[in-house]
Amino acid sequence: MGQLDDYRLMARIRRFEERLTALKDAGEIPGSIHLCNGQEAVPVGACRALRDGDHVTATYRGHGWAIARGVDLTGLFAEMMGRDSALCGGRAASPYLSDPGRWFVGENSIVGAGVPIATGAALTAQRTGSGAVSVVTIGDGAMNQGNVHEALNLAAVLDLPLVLVVENNVYSEMSRISDMVRVRQLAERAAGYGLPGRVVDGNDPDAVAEAVTEAVDRAREGSGPSIVEAMTERLVGHYSGDAQHYRPTGEIAAAREREPLARIRRAADADLTARLDAIDAEVSAEIETAVTAARAVPYPDPATAEEHVYV
Amino acid sequence: MSESLRYIQAVNAALTWALDSRTDTIYFGEDVALPGGPFGATKGLHKRFGSERIFDTPISETGFLGMALGAAMTGLRPIAEIMYADFSFVAMDQIVNQIATVHYSSAGRWKAPLVIRMQQGYSPGACAQHSHSPEAYFAHTPGLRVALPATPDDAYQMLRTAVVSDDPVVVAEARMLYPTRGPVRTDAPVEPVGGARVVRPGADVTVVAWSRMVSAALDAAGTLAEEGVDVEVVDLRWLNPLDFDTVAASIARTGRLVVAHEANLTGGFGAEIAARAAAECFADLRAPIARVATPDVPMPAAPALQAVVVPEAATVAEAVRRTVRA
C-alpha cells in the first residue's frame, strides 16, 4: 500500500460521507447519521495491519471502518436509505450496520458496547487457534464507559488478541473530552490494565498503520491486548443535525488545514496533484454508481418485519 | 435411564453433558472454575475439562456477557453464568441491546447461540438485591428465549435444550429448589425449545405457574383436593416461546384461571398470561382471573417480613378458593 492507495481509500470514505450528507438533505436517508469526515486516516491506517478473518468492531461513527474493511458501497448506501440491503436488510441503518462476510462485527449505537463484543471475537480466535485478531474502535468519550473498562481488564487477564483503537477527535459527543477526564492522554489508562498504550497522529495513515501493526503483531503472537490512541479531529458535527455552536470560532477551519486529505494535497507537486485529481474523479464516479445502484434496491417487504427475531 | 438427582446436581450433569458432547461450548462466569460455583453447579468441571473450556472471570457482568456475544457470533457456543439474577441488571445493555437484537438487526446474518445461566428468587435472609425474579424483563425482550425449570429433570433437559439452541437463551433457575430431589432422565434426547406441561390434571380451576411456584401450586392443589376443589396445574416452563395453547386448552376445561409467580405483581409475566386469557379465552372464563405474586415491594431480608410477602402454597390456595367462589 502506498500513499496513492491510502489517498484513494480515504477519499472514498470522505466522498461517501459527503454524498450521504447530500442524500440526507434530500430526504433519502431516514434517521440520524454520524459522520467521520476528517478521521479517515484512522480506519485506513489501521486496516492496513489486518488480513482476512480479522474482526473489526466499530461505533455508530463507523462508515469509514466499514469501507476500509471492504464492505460493499452499494450495500452501505442502500442500508442507510432504509432499503432491503444485502447487509442488514434495512434493519440496522447507519449506526448499527454490520457485515459478517467482511468480518465486520459491526457498528454499535451504545457507546462502548462493542468492546466487550470484540473481546468475545478475540476469545474465539484464541480458543480456536485461528490466529485472527479482533480490532475494536471507540471514540474518546467511550473511555468513560464501564463496559470499556470491564472488557479491557477481561481481555488483559485472558491475554486475548484484542487491539483497541481510540479515535480521539477532541469531542465526547458534544462536550470536550478534556472536561471529562483527568488524564492528558487516554492511552495513559493502558497502564491501569497492565497493557501497552501508544498515542499516534491519527491524521497520518502511516503512523496509525505502524502503531496498529505493532499491536496486531503482539496480539497475534499471543501477548495480549494493546491500546492505540489516534489523535484526530472531526470536521463535522456529532450527528447530522448538530449545529456545533459549542466549538470555538476557527477550530473547524484550522482542522481543515490538518486533515489527512488536505495534508497530502498540500505536500503534492503538480504531477501528484494531477494524479490525486484523477483519483478524486474516479472515486466520485464510483460513489455515484453505488448511489444509483442503491436506489434500485427495493424497500423491505413489510410482511417481513417480524422475520429474523429468532433463528 | 433415570437417576435420582438434586436440582443442582441436574444442572451440573447438564453442563457436563454440554462440555463433553459439544466442543464448541465454553463456560465462564464468576467463581465457576476453580471454586466450582457458589452453589456447586460447576463442581468438578474445571478438573475434568480444564481452563480451555471453563474459566473464572473478573466481576464484570457487562464485560463477560458481551464477550459471550462476540464469541457466539464468531463460532463458539458460550454458556455464561450470572451468579445471582439480580446481577444481570448490571449487564442489561448487553442482554437487551446487544444479545437480543443482533440476529434481527443483521437480517439473520449473525447468530448468537449462547446461554445466560442464572438463579433467582428469594431465600431466607437474602436482601432485595439477591432476591429478584426478573423473568418478565427478559420475556419482554424480543430475541431472547426464557426458560424457568421447576424440577430436577427440567433443570437437566431445559439447560441442554438451551445449549443446543441457536438463539440466546436465559435459563433462570430457582435457588430455593437446588436441594430438591427427583428423577432425571439422563439419557433422554434433547428436547426442542418451548412447551408448557399439565403437571396435575383437574376439573375446577387452572393454576399456571413456573419455577418455584409450580411446587407451591401442587401443594395447594393437594390441600384443595381435600376441600373438594379439583385443581389443574400447568407448569409454563418457557416464557419464550410461550405455549399459550396448553394454557388455553386447560382454561377450556376448567373455566377458571389463577396465575402464580414469585416476581412482583405489577408488570409481572402473570399480567401477560391474564391479558392473553382475557383476549383469547373470554368465552371459557366463568370467574375473574386471579394473580398470585409478591406484592409491589422490594424483597425484605428479615424472614418475618418475607413471610408476609412471598407467595407460598397457602397464598395460591387462598386465591383458588376466591376464584372458585366467585
UniProtKB/TrEMBL annotation, chain A:
GO molecular function: magnesium ion binding; pyruvate dehydrogenase (acetyl-transferring) activity
InterPro entries: DH_E1, PDH_E1_Alpha_Subunit, THDP-binding
Residues in Dehydrogenase E1 component domain copies: 10-302
GO biological process terms held by the UniProt record: pyruvate decarboxylation to acetyl-CoA
Entry keywords, A to Z: Oxidoreductase, Pyruvate, Thiamine pyrophosphate
Top-level taxon of the source organism: Bacteria
Signal peptide limits: none
CC cofactor: thiamine diphosphate
UniProt-listed PANTHER family: PYRUVATE DEHYDROGENASE E1 COMPONENT SUBUNIT ALPHA, PYRUVATE DEHYDROGENASE E1 COMPONENT, ALPHA SUBUNIT BACTERIAL AND ORGANELLAR
Official protein name in the record: Pyruvate dehydrogenase E1 component alpha subunit
UniProtKB/TrEMBL annotation, chain B:
Entry-linked Gene3D superfamilies: 3.40.50.920, 3.40.50.970
An example molecular function term from Gene Ontology annotations: oxidoreductase activity
Stored Pfam families: Transket_pyr, Transketolase_C
Domain of life: Bacteria
Keywords on record: Oxidoreductase, Pyruvate, Thiamine pyrophosphate
Residues in Transketolase-like pyrimidine-binding domain copies: 5-180
InterPro entries in the record: THDP-binding, Transketo_C/PFOR_II, Transketolase-like_Pyr-bd, Transketolase_C
Listed cofactors: thiamine diphosphate
Protein's name in the database: Pyruvate dehydrogenase E1 component beta subunit
Upper lineage: Bacteria, Bacillati, Actinomycetota, Actinomycetes, Micromonosporales
